[in-house]
Amino acid sequence: MHVGSVAGIWRYPVKSMAGERLDATPVGLLGLPGDRAWAVRDEERGGIRGAKKIPELMRSEARYLAEPTAGRAGDVEMRLPDGTTLRSDDPAVAERLSSALGTRVTLWPLQPADQLDHFRRGAPTHADLELELRSIFGLEPGEPLPDMSGLPPEILEFESPPGTYFDAFPLLLVSQCSLTSLARLAPGSKIDARRFRPNFVLELPEARDGFPEHEWAGRHVRIGGLTAEVTIPCMRCVMTTLPFDDLPKDPRIMRTLVRETRQCLGAYARVAEPGIVRIGDPVELV
Description:
Helices cover 15% and strands 28% of the residues. The protein starts with a strand and ends with a strand. The chain is globular. The protein has one domain (2-33, 116-285): Beta Barrel (M1 Pyruvate Kinase, Domain 3). The protein has helices at residues 93-101, 116-119, 129-137, 176-185, 252-261; strands spanning 2-11, 20-22, 24-27, 38-42, 48-49, 61-64, 76-79, 85-87, 105-109, 171-175, 200-203, 220-223, 226-235, 264-273, 275-278, 282-285.
C-alpha cells in the first residue's frame, strides 16, 4: 500500500554530532554506510558517550572526507563549537576534542562486535537508577519513565548494541506529518527534524492521531529499494531539548512529548532487505 515518499535522508558520521543531508544512499543490514561510524569515549567515567551525557557534542558537526562504504567509513572532518575544524586523523584530536567538549574524551572508529569492553557502559552520573534515567530522558518529577521493554536487552549492559554506535536500532524514521503535529501541539517551540536525528524523513498524508509511524510497529515498510521492519516508536531523551546551531534550548518540547505521545516521536526499524534509497522514492506499507 503506497503511503508517501522520501523527503529527507540523513547520516551522522560522529555519534551525536550534526550530520549530512544526502540525495541518495545504499542501505545495508547495519543501516547507512558511515552512519554513526565514529564516537567519543569518556575517559573520566568510561563508556562511549553521546549528547545525553556530553551536550556540547550537539554543537559540533561532522562530514566525511570521502564517501564511506559498508566496509570502511574513512576519516571525518569535524567543525567544533568555536568554529574551528579538526580531522579524525589529527594527532591532537583527543586533546582538541576534550578542550572543546569540556570533558576528557578520545575519538574512536567503530570497533568489532567482539570487543565487548569497548561497548560496556561507563559509570553513571547518579548512583540512584531512577534519577539517572530521569536525567537521561529529561523528565521532571512526577512524569512517568518511558516504556523501555521493546529495546534490545543488551543495552542494559552496553552503551549500544556491540558492533554499532546506534542507541538501539540501525534506522530511525520520522514523518513530516509527526513534525507538523508536534509543532501544532507546541506552538511556542521551534520544531525541526534536526532535533530528532532521523535517517529518513517521510512525507506521509495526515493521520488520524497525527503521528502515523507510531502505528507501524511490527510491520514492514518499503522505502525505495529498502525494506525495513519497524520495531518500536522512538522514545525521546534530553537531546531533543538541547541548543545547537539556530535552535534554542527548549525543555517544553519534552513536556509536550510526555503529555501527548508517551514521549515518542518517529519509529525505530531494522533492515529486512538492503537496497538503495533516493529522495522522492515511494514509501509503501508491505
